[in-house]
Amino acid sequence: MDRDWMQQRLEAFDALVTKYVTASGPSPDALSLSERPRPANPELPGLRTEMIKAEPTVRKILSRLDPALVADFNVESGSGRHAAVSQVRRGLGILADMDEWAIRLTPDTPALHADQLHPWVWDAARTFWESEHYRAAVHAAATSINARLQNKLGRRDVSDAKLVQEALSDKAPEPGKPRLRIPGDQSDPGVQTRQRGALQLGQGAYSALRNPAAHETGDLAEQEALEQLATFSVVARLMDQCQVVY
Q1: What are phi and psi of 217, to 5 degrees?
Q2: What span, in angstroms and rounded, lies between the C-alpha atoms of 197 and 145?
Q3: The pairing of beta strand 179-181 with beta strand 243-245
Q4: Would you tell me the crossing angle of helices 189-205 and 160-167 to the nearest 10 degrees?
Q5: Residue 238: predicted pLDDT
Q6: Number of C-beta neighbours around residue 195 at 10 A
Q7: d(CA 179, CA 170)
């Protein structure tokens, strides 16, 4: 919405109706007998015309702000004009405070606390994060998980996505190639599904996030980097929970 335009139209209408009411003078009921009749103000016809021409747009604006503002909107009578001015001023109040409403009245949203990410991730990323090197923080987290997995499996011959692929393979362990298994009954379909999901998530994180962090230039936005760290945190928790099968 063009709030500046809406405000200008409402303020102009407020001024126009106020001028019309002032030019009309007191209602006949408020005058003493000695003061009647009064000659008509020559400005009134022109002001009335302008007021009627502006009314449809003002109605549209008020309806957009709050449909209740146009329920009894009427400029054809004295009381209606006073009510219309009140509604217009309510509309101006809405426009003035809309941004405040959006900030102050928005429901609280969950917060992601970086220091509560898995230690394999945050311990490695923290120094880079605090110095605002966000891409380096993501790369450090991925490198940390790789090192932890290598230590857990006793392997140095593969790394990153290839290490995840071999570690979580559904193949039986081989000499020098132990496997990681999600805890639980390995014949249970739910455990098998989690096993496949951990494999796919781990490979995807290294291919989609770690590789760009290692090879691309330019830094990441803070929010984007935090989301990537959260992804690696999920990977780390899954790997940390897995049992090594020889």
Answers
A1: -100, 170
A2: 17
A3: antiparallel
A4: 170
A5: 96
A6: 21
A7: 8
Tokens of 6: 């809406």
CA distances (Å), origin 58, targets 1, 2, 3, 138, 222? 14, 14, 13, 53, 43
Rounded Cα–Cα distance for residues 84 and 76 (Å): 10
DSSP codes, 44-63: HHHHHHHHHHHHHHHHHHHH
pTM for this model (two decimals): 0.61
Tell me, what DSSP letter sits at residue 214? H
- Measured in degrees and rounded to the nearest 5, phi and psi for residue 174 equal -125, 165
Question: 114: which 2 tokens?
Answer: 């970086």
* Triad 64, 70, 76: Cα angle to 5°: 135
pLDDT tens digits along 231-242: 999 999 999 999
Instruction: Report the Cα 211 to chain-centroid distance in Å.
Output: 28
> For the residues 108-137, what does the mean pLDDT come to?
93
Q: Is it true that the peptide bond before 173 is cis, omega within 30 degrees of 0?
A: no
Sequence-distant (≥ 6) Cβ neighbours of residue 185 within 8 angstroms: 191
Sign of CA dihedral 14, 16, 19, 20: negative
Kindly write down the DSSP assignment for every residue of 11-38, as one continuous string.
HHHHHHHHHHHHHH-S-GGGS-GGG-S-
In the prediction, which pLDDT does 28 show? 46
Contact of 222 with 134, CB cutoff 8 Å: yes
Residue 199: count other Cβ atoms within 10 Å of its Cβ.
Answer: 20
With 60 as the cut, is the pLDDT of residue 126 above it?
A: yes
Overall size of the chain counted in residues? 246
